[in-house]
Amino acid sequence: MDPRIMQSGLTREEYNRGHKLFESRKPKSYMVGVKTPGDTDWVTNALTFKTEAEAMAYGSDLNSRWTLVIAWKVIPSTKRPSHRWNPNTYRAERIAPYVKGLDY
User: Fold this and answer.
1) Does an H or E element contain 21, and which?
2) pTM for the whole thing?
3) Which of 18, 33, 97, 100 has the most CB atoms lying inside 10 A of its own CB?
């Protein structure tokens, strides 16, 4: 028997169920949230990035272009990545063509 299961004190089924739950909640991508005057919550768009670093680069660029941003942060997301950051053009580029109805 796996020593991790033995240490946890759970049955194999309970351990596997918890592991699947953890994996399903692990971030698949990262997005940028911004706040402008009057916002009480973080506002995001549909752009999601594979890495936190790509989302940080996009957020920094967005912050430099928008004049009313008072705060921004990177937010983990369970959606699949839709864009990648191109450091040569300073643009977010779509990874694959948009398909209506898919949960990006």
Assistant:
1) helix 12-25
2) 0.69
3) 33
